[in-house]
Design brief:
Chain lengths: 273, 1033
């Protein structure tokens, strides 16, 4: 409030175009990594003096491996939204659906990245909803040069907080093949038809009948309900109501989010029956 | 680095943290607009190697080696691209500020029709337009016309009538949403109102030239420049040596400034000046501007020693760049003595509550009671409420609450100032009221008024938010201090957090009625929160309690209204000026009454509607400055809306037990001009080049008055609007104009234009008679000259004759001089227009009109006519809105199935444009009824970006069927009435009433958001949930 600043990041005097992991040694408390830039340049950053641009790494955006789909942190939403289906990927449609859950327009898809959206760690981040909901694993390049993997659902720890420390970079997320071959249903609701998400729910029923419901956007971090098989409607209803991480913000009141989640969860359960 | 912009090479190095938007503008690509700088609004959209991006969040260096295309690279005014031409033909813009981004985005859709859709789905983008355009916000149009543009639908017509004799006066194009039903064809009323015989001069004459301007959907004169990015807005000029201004704002809601240490800021290289409260005049003023400056309390200083809301100005820095100015603001060391604050208007007058303006003198500052935070009050009773309620068979009562709303025009406030060659202070500013800004700055700065010039370029939207001094005072001081050009540009966050919002009001309405439904009493109690400063507070409160209840007859009425100070952000002018808030309550109460009586809500309104036979009563019978002026259209509006609702539109409700359907209606009445005077002057000069130069004072900010004024002038002069050279909204262009607010653009300034054009036409015919001996009545005006039978005189010849006559007759200066001279002449000799025309070239031709006068006379360089209008008699317009909605009881979703508005606009000067004004008002009504809310927590506005303050997107705005009543007014030009604020006013209650009808529970609070509607249905079973509130983001 005292001074918010204008659009240019006028305190930033240096940008490093990263091409090698050693370029990341410049990172610190006032030098941060970024990919597309739509989030970073969208708000004042007067504490920053430098940036490290990850796009110049030139990472392959989307790679199909034996494990599943590896998505580089720098993968553009537009590329994800157009990625063609592979044989047996029953979940393919949700890649595009979750892109549409972003408040940003298709023009933001043209520069916004999967990793940037996850690292912003906003409750309404649709790439968090997508990759957490599909039990994807995040690969973190730690500042000390080590690598670490963890579920995306654990990577995001709260509203705008995550497991990255200064100097760390999210390298990629990998969606396991089993998830891609699952039947998946998603629901989004906002206070307006195409507005900022108030709730994003993603349900997945695996080949082994595992049923996972991931609630996001209405909770400060993704919350997963996991069952060996589809639960009965009342159980799911009660379990959703028992979630305790609801919040209120301009995109919805906590009580509305909590109750409407039961409605969307029931729809998902029915769709995946 | 090497960039390619619109095909040209640009060698330059952007700053490390610079975005593409500011980089392009630094290189004078002013066609790239700023709307939000957060990637939400799309005004800055450009193509990079053909891919559409928001340039405000695109790092500039990343475009190195790539091809950037702006809207100016897609086509030029002379050679528009197909998409650009479609936006002109569809009238797909109003203020035009969002248009550059719209056109770029639409062009990207055409170039790549399946972008973003899953493989296999091609050509879906236009089908999926609401989603593809969700990142392009338009605050003016309501999007229908933008959709038309993208679909290639043409809505404008040329000034030349069709040769096949068909009448296209209601727009010509097919109207897919029901418009075209009931379009007007011309003045229906008689000639001559109660104030003088003028209508005879104003009726569109039979055309001999095949040209007809008024009543037809002419395109905006600036259209081809707007769609190609070539129309300059406020900040779209390069000024060499320009400094930038940044403002430090208070983090506290109430505090005394103990000290400001400016040393570190001043020491920063590039800082030119730092100003604090010690450096500014100690003259109290109001940021609100009106014709009568005493309408608003003098309670504001440019910089004060006390801050009364979080976000108030504390100090400002002028520096060589905005980055330096910002850095210097961060170096200012301010010590505050924090004071207790009050954010609750209901407690503002309670003893012990912090008093905000105790230091002010009540009489001098015009504050009702500074000791109890009372800015203004209105109390009065007509008849006896006690008797009225005693005589009622049915009573209803309720309390309704409206929220804070941001005007949020797409162009933020901004000013560039400099000293001109004559040593005058010049301000180029984003304002609805340049003349009022000039007047008040003259007072505050103690500068003679002729030492200040204030003008506007095209303004990017207003909605009331620019009837304020928000930037001009700071820039004026900075220019005077530094002697150099200075720019101050507000951010979107400034707009959402410190620029005055709509007054939140708590309104209690009690209605009494007989069993037949006849009202016996209307009792109104209003509490209005003006925030920390009183700007617009009194006026908004009075207006709120005016037409909202004088619309209905009741033998007993009472108003008890207060406007109070709190430590919230200041409230200010907003479309509707208070009426929207109180109409929400009154029309909801009327609907409740209809439910209680088991009566059709249309019939209840018909039964109680004020008619020309009834007195207009608020708490007493209104003065005779307000009348129906022969154009009563409330009855037609009710019939048109009801008919449309009963016909339906074929849109089916969603199926499922959770959905219920309801219908609702609400009415609104508005005076066509603000009270107590609204003045305008206009001039038209036929120059030696044979071109008409049309000068008037009204600013163009999407209101469309420039189009209408050019139609009026063209009609009277037998020419086409495209041939007029227009200069406007400049204190140098005409002597005076009160400004573009209170819906006055067409009905006041338009009358001044009409008077001037009429006088000039008579003068030209008189001149032709002098030159030829053929009687003036024989001469007909054509675009290139005058014709009488087979004789033709070019306009250049008439202008030359006038110029020669002016050289030999000093008399000519009388008409071309000030309006005062014209008025004086009119007072002493009320000339009959037709006989005055024959007095030879040298003598002035006088025309009197209702509340105005015009005089035409030769001047050096041609023949000039000057017209004035006082605007002190006012007419009345009506709007009725109806909705059919479906409500989902499980989620609170409200789906609008049908939206209908009928409007009593008098003679419709430009059907497409008037339809656009109504659609835009409805869209703003829907936005503010369902989505928009400025959220304040402990005095801090948390909704500081467009992601959290939801302006309506295309997806949010359904089509609205528009119907015009067939009326013609005796006061407005050609029978026109104003139609800019009023379409907004009935929308919220119509929607609330439809929701009530659907779900059986009445909403009492705006916005009607999904979570609130859902909560309405939970009843007593709703458990409170202990959950954190996250900051808006």
């Amino acid at each position: 409030m005292v001074f918010t600043g204008t659009v240019d990041l006028n305190t930033v005097t240096d940008v490093t175009l990263a091409r090698d992991r050693s370029d990341l040694q410049k990172l610190g408390s006032t030098v941060v990594p970024f990919a597309g830039g739509s989030a970073l340049f969208g708000e004042p950053q007067v504490h920053l003096t430098g940036l490290v641009d990850l796009m110049t790494f030139g990472w392959a955006p989307l790679t199909v491996t034996a494990e599943g789909l590896e998505i580089a942190a720098t993968c553009l939403l537009v590329d994800l939204s157009r990625f063609p289906a592979q044989p047996g990927w029953a979940a393919h449609h949700v890649l595009y659906e979750c892109c549409t859950y972003l408040l940003g327009s298709f023009k933001v898809w043209n520069m916004g990245t999967v990793g940037g959206n996850i690292c912003a760690s906003l409750p309404a981040g649709p790439m968090t909803s997508l990759t957490a909901g599909l039990d994807a694993t995040a690969l973190i390049w730690r500042a000390d040069g080590t690598d670490e993997r963890m579920p995306v659902a654990e990577f995001v720890t709260g509203n705008k907080t995550n497991r990255l420390n200064p100097g760390d970079v999210l390298r990629s997320v990998t969606i396991p093949l089993a998830s891609l071959q699952s039947r998946v249903a998603s629901r989004k609701i906002a206070l307006s038809p195409l507005g900022r998400s108030g709730l994003v729910l993603l349900g997945r029923r695996g080949a082994d009948d595992t049923f996972v419901l991931t609630v996001s956007a209405g909770t400060v971090r993704p919350v997963q309900l996991r069952y060996p098989g589809p639960p009965d409607a009342q159980t799911l209803h009660d379990d959703v109501l028992a979630i305790d991480q609801w919040f209120t913000d301009p995109h919805g009141a906590a009580d509305w989010r909590r109750t409407v989640s039961t409605v969307l969860a029931a729809e998902i359960l029915e769709e995946l029956a | 680095m090497t960039f390619t912009v619109n095909g040209s090479s640009l060698e330059a190095t952007p700053r490390a943290g610079q975005v593409l938007r500011t980089f392009l503008r630094d290189h004078e690509h002013f066609e790239v607009k700023k709307g939000c700088d957060t990637g939400d609004c799309g005004a800055c959209s450009v193509l990079v190697d053909g891919t559409a991006v928001h340039s405000c969040v695109y790092p500039a260096y990343r475009a190195d080696g790539h091809e950037v295309t702006t809207v100016a690279g897609l086509g030029t005014p002379e050679n528009l691209s197909p998409v650009q031409q479609h936006f002109v033909d569809a009238a797909g813009f109003q203020c035009g500020f969002c248009t550059a981004g719209m056109v770029v985005t639409a062009s990207a859709l055409e170039a790549d029709a399946d972008a973003g859709l899953p493989s296999g789905a091609t050509g879906g983008e236009v089908r999926d337009l609401p989603r593809m355009l969700k990142g392009n916000l338009c605050r003016c149009t309501g999007y229908r016309a933008i959709g038309d543009a993208i679909a290639g639908i043409a809505n404008v017509v040329s000034a030349t009538l069709p040769t096949d004799g068909t009448d296209d006066t209601d727009g010509g194009a097919p109207h897919t949403h029901g418009h075209g039903h009931g379009g007007t064809r011309g003045p229906q009323g008689g000639t001559g109102g109660p104030h003088g015989g003028t209508a005879i001069l104003e009726r569109p004459l039979p055309t001999t030239t095949g040209i007809r301007s008024v009543g037809r959907s002419q395109k905006a004169p600036a259209g081809s420049r707007i769609v190609s990015g070539q129309e300059p807005y406020t900040l779209d000029i390069a000024v060499p040596g320009m400094l930038h201004l940044a403002v430090l704002r208070s983090p506290h809601s109430h505090a005394r400034i103990v000290s400001i240490d400016t040393a570190a800021a001043r020491a920063l290289p590039g800082v030119v000046a730092v100003l604090t409260h010690a450096d500014v005049p100690d003259t109290l003023f109001s940021s609100a501007r009106h014709e009568n400056r005493t309408d608003d309390p003098d309670d504001t200083l440019i910089l004060d020693t006390v801050v009364r809301f979080a976000g108030q100005r504390v100090a400002f820095v002028v520096a060589e760049s905005i980055g330096i100015a910002e850095a210097a603001c961060r170096l200012l060391d301010v010590q505050y003595d924090v004071l207790p604050a009050n954010f609750d208007p209901a407690r503002a007058r309670t003893p012990g509550i912090p008093v905000l303006h105790a230091d002010k003198d009540a009489a001098a500052s015009r504050i009702a009671d500074p000791a109890t935070n009372l800015v203004a009050e209105m109390r009065g009773e007509y008849g006896s409420i006690a008797d009225g309620l005693a005589n009622a068979n049915v009573t209803v009562t309720g309390t309704w609450q409206t929220q804070r709303i941001s005007a949020s025009a797409l162009e933020t406030h901004g000013t560039i100032g400099w000293i001109d060659d004559d040593g005058r202070l010049v301000l180029r500013t984003s304002s609805q009221v340049p003349f009022l800004v000039q007047k008040e700055l003259s007072r505050i700065l103690e500068l003679p008024i002729d030492r200040i010039r204030v003008y506007t370029a095209r303004v990017g939207g207003g909605f009331g938010g620019k009837q304020e001094i928000q930037t001009e005072d700071l820039v004026a001081l900075a220019v005077l201090k530094t002697g150099r050009p200075v720019q101050y540009e507000m951010t979107r966050t400034d707009e959402l957090t410190v620029v005055p919002c709509r007054h939140p009001m708590t309104t209690t309405v009690t209605l009494g009625a007989t069993a037949e439904g006849r009202l016996t009493a209307i009792d109104l109690t209003v509490l209005s929160d003006t925030g920390a400063y009183g700007n617009h507070g009194p006026g908004v409160m009075y207006h709120a309690c005016g037409e909202s209840i004088s619309i209905y007859n009741a033998p007993n009425k009472r108003v008890n209204a207060e406007c109070v100070y709190t430590n919230n952000i200041p409230s200010g002018a907003f479309r509707g000026y208070g009426l929207g808030q109180v109409i929400f309550a009154v029309e909801s109460a009327m609907d409740e009454l209809a439910h209680r009586l088991g009566m059709n809500p249309f019939d209840l309104r018909r039964l109680n509607a004020v008619t020309p036979a009834d007195p207009l009563v608020v708490t007493h019978v209104e003065g005779d400055d307000l009348s129906f002026a022969g154009s009563y259209g409330f009855d037609q509006c009710l019939d048109l809306a009801q008919g449309a609702l009963e016909r339906g539109n074929g849109v089916a409700a969603p199926t499922g037990p959770e959905w219920s359907v309801g219908e609702g209606v609400a009415a609104a009445m508005i005076a066509t001009i603000p009270p107590r005077g609204h003045f305008a002057e206009a001039s038209i000069t036929l120059g030696l080049d044979g071109v008409y130069a049309l000068n008037f004072g009204t600013a163009e900010f999407g209101n469309g008055t420039t189009t209408v004024h050019s139609q009026i002038a063209a009609e009277a002069l037998g020419t086409v609007p495209e041939l007029l050279r227009i200069r406007q909204s400049d204190t140098d262009a005409v002597p005076y104009d009160t400004g573009a607010f209170g819906s006055a653009g067409t009905v006041v300034a338009g009358r001044a234009v009409l008077a001037a054009a009429t006088a000039l036409a008579l003068k030209l015919r008189g001149a032709a008679e002098s030159l030829t001996g053929i009687l003036s009545a024989e001469w007909m005006l054509e675009p290139a000259g005058l014709r009488a039978g087979d004789r033709f005189i070019p306009l250049t010849e008439i202008a030359a004759a006038g110029s020669a006559a002016a050289g030999s007759a000093a008399a000519g200066s009388a008409a071309a001089g000030s309006a005062a001279a014209g008025s004086a002449a009119a007072d002493s000799a009320v000339a009959d227009a037709d006989t005055a025309a024959g007095d030879g070239i040298g003598a002035p031709t006088l025309v009197t009109i209702t509340e105005g006068v015009a005089a035409a006379a030769p001047v050096a360089g041609g023949i000039t006519a000057v017209g004035t209008h006082a605007g002190d008699h006012r007419s009345i317009a009506f709007n009725v809105h109806a909705f059919r909605v479906a409500v989902n009881s499980a989620t609170g979703e409200v789906r609008i199935l049908q939206s209908v508005q009928s409007a009593d606009a008098g003679y419709v000067m430009n059907p497409e444009q008037c339809r656009g004004q109504i659609e835009g008002g409805v869209a703003q009504g829907i936005g503010t009824s369902m989505y928009e809310e400025t959220i304040v927590e402990n005095g801090i506005v948390t909704t500081g970006v467009l992601r959290s303050y939801h302006l309506p997107q295309m997806a949010d705005v359904p089509p609205t069927e528009i119907f015009f009543a067939e009326t013609a007014d005796e006061l407005g030009p050609y029978g026109a009435k104003s139609m800019s604020e009023s379409p907004f006013n009935p929308v919220a209650p119509a929607l609330a009433n439809a929701i009530r009808d659907a779900v059986g529970v009445r909403p009492y609070e705006l916005p009607l958001s999904r979570d609130r509607v859902w909560r309405l249905l939970q009843g007593a079973d709703l458990e409170p949930l202990d959950a954190p509130a996250l900051p808006a983001d």
